[in-house]
Amino acid sequence: MPKILQIGGATDAMLARLSAFDITELYGLADAPAWLAQNGAGIEYVLTNGHDGIKPDVMAALPDVKLISCYGVGYDAIDTTTAVERGITVTHTPNVLNDEVATTTIMLMLACYRNLINDDAYVRAGKWEAEGNTPLTRSADNRRVGILGLGRIGQAIADKLAAFNSEISYHSRNQKDVPYKYYGDLTKMARDVEVLICITPGGPATDKIVNREVIEALGSDGTLINVSRGSVVDEAEMIAALSEGRLGWAGLDVFEAEPKVPAELRALKNVVLLPHVGSATVETRAAMGNLTVDNILQYQKDATVISAVPECK
Ligand code: NAP
Ligand code: 8YV
Predict the structure, then answer these.
(1) Would you say the CB of residue 173 lies under 6 angstroms from ligand 1?
(2) Domain holding 190: CATH number?
(3) Could you tell me if 76 and 165 lie in one domain?
(4) Is 276 considered catalytic here?
(5) How many domains, the chain?
(6) How far is CA 48 from the centre of its chain?
(7) Is 213 a catalytic residue?
(8) How remote is the CA of residue 15 from the centroid of ligand 1, in Å?
(9) How far is the CA of 119 from the centre of ligand 1 (A)?
(10) Pairs from 153-157 (Cβ < 8 Å, separation ≥ 24)
(11) What residues make up the domain containing 297?
């Protein structure tokens, strides 16, 4: 039986489709380094996800690995440079999650503008009856929205924002053939918009790209939505700005050290916090799981894949 090393979770449906493989769960091992030293050779496939990826010591312990199939589109936790050098193919799950992550983004934006979480808590605490109506909130319609990273998901977000009559602009390294205003300078865009949505890949190129200067430019009336990776935003600067009123609101699905979320951030009223659930619906995870498995099955059949990451194409 061909061998798979599984790093992180997989659904029952995925595992059922992989029943012809001998699967070992890395996190289920009592002594992973010892097990890898003894059994690493002979493992041809790695099944992982965007969060867990594969650590360098684990990759080094798998001399025969041919394919790393990632259950997620973001692959910043996988060292593709080493993979390419070693002739390992890396695959991911683009497109099948675009709409879901876009919905999560819109949900965060609406929750910030309409004070959804605090108003819900108000009703639950019996305060409506005891203290009367809550203050008016702000409309999410007709806003100037800047998208940092207008790729597959960024475009899906822009499409859904049409329903809110948003004026869309974007920043990325390359200008795209789209009807939105392009900014080569992220700070300038942040100054001109009311909402900044982060949906770039993570990794060194975007590390803390949303820094103090960008946060200041977005300002006290601004809303920051991060559905990309925690590394994209300087979390300490963001928390300070939110606490001091220099940034208005933040809607966050991702954090610097997941699943740890700083207590200071959790205590703030002007934030909406989600546990990295951008794509986490039954339907979308099923589609992602199928593509993840399809890549493995196709590779096993004829050494080709459906959705290699760009570095491996
Ligand atoms: P994509 O199609 O590759 O789009 C990425 C966009 O980011 C492109 O427009 C790219 O344009 C831009 N970009 C890349 N590097 C940049 C840089 N250094 N500075 C500015 N812009 C940059 O990727 P996607 O499928 O939309 O996914 C985007 C990311 O979303 C994933 O990598 C993942 O981290 C995140 N994600 C999160 C969740 C969640 O659950 N929260 C779910 C799915 C995905 P240029 O190349 O022109 O710069
Ligand atoms: C997943 C994601 O939660 O696809 C991504 O990049 O961030 C999410 O869809 C992640 O891959 C963990 O499974």
Answers:
(1) yes
(2) 3.40.50.720
(3) no
(4) yes
(5) 2
(6) 15
(7) no
(8) 28
(9) 33
(10) 153/73, 153/97, 153/98, 153/101, 153/102, 153/105, 153/199, 153/227, 154/197, 154/199, 155/98, 156/98, 156/99, 156/101, 156/102, 157/101, 157/102, 157/105, 157/106, 157/197, 157/199
(11) 3-95+282-312
Are residues 66 and 122 part of one domain?
no
From 49, 70, 71, 73, the mutation candidate for ligand 1 (largest count of ligand atoms within 8 A of CB) is 73
Verify whether ligand 1 is closer than 6 Å to residue 95 (CB atom): no
Ligand 1 mean position to 54 CA, how many Å?
20
Cβ–ligand 1 distance for 151 under 6 Å, the answer: yes
Q: Is the pTM of this model over 0.90?
A: yes
| Whether residue 258 is found in the same domain as residue 299 | no
pLDDT digit of tens for each residue in the chain (313 aa)? 999 999 999 999 999 999 999 999 999 999 999 999 999 999 999 999 999 999 999 999 999 999 999 999 999 999 999 999 999 999 999 999 999 999 999 999 999 999 999 999 999 999 999 999 999 999 999 999 999 999 999 999 999 999 999 999 999 999 999 999 999 999 999 999 999 999 999 999 999 999 999 999 999 999 999 999 999 999 999 999 999 999 999 999 999 999 999 999 999 999 999 999 999 999 999 999 999 999 999 999 999 999 999 999 9
